[in-house]
Amino acid sequence: MRLTTPELAAAALANEINAGTNWISRQHHSRLLAQNTGAQIHLTAGRYGAVNVAGTSVALAAGHVFAGIVAGSTILIAGTAYTVASVESPTGLTLAAAAPALTAALYVAPRGGIDGNLIVLYSTSRNERLSFDRTHIRSPVVAPT
Fold it and tell me: What confidence tens digit (pLDDT) does each residue in 90-143 have?
């Protein structure tokens, strides 16, 4: 017997968005980050690429530079969340805690800035069992911090 709840479906969808898509191979200009709380999913725009990791040191290997990422931000590296301790340059940053040594690991981080979350989402569904609460959602513009 399989138990499926709205909370489990939201968690699975958020996980697929965060860890299930190789945005570099899709050559898309933006990436999505998803966070779920219960059955609610919050989507934000992100930057992405590939990084080389040695302990707390992260170096850009390919993709978007780290401009706009600030200390305290969350960065997903190979699907695992880390906190940024400092940004050394557009191509190098330091993590608050060490990560495993990785080469060309996929990363994603919030886009940031005043235009950081200009996302419009449209949805359709076959039935009412799994659907969005609106057919058109436009995220607010977030002021820079």
Answer: 999 999 999 999 999 988 887 765 555 555 666 666 777 666 666 555 554 444
Whether residue 83 contacts residue 59, with contact meaning beta carbons closer than 8 Å, is answered with no
DSSP-derived 3-state class of residue 14: helix
Residue 21 CB burial class (10 angstroms; 0-12, 13-18, ≥19): middle
The number of beta carbons lying within 10 Å of the beta carbon of residue 8 is: 13
Bridge-based pairing of strands 92-110 and 40-63 is antiparallel
Q: Which two tokens stand for residue 64?
A: 């978007």
* pTM (2 d.p.): 0.66
What DSSP designation does 72 have? T
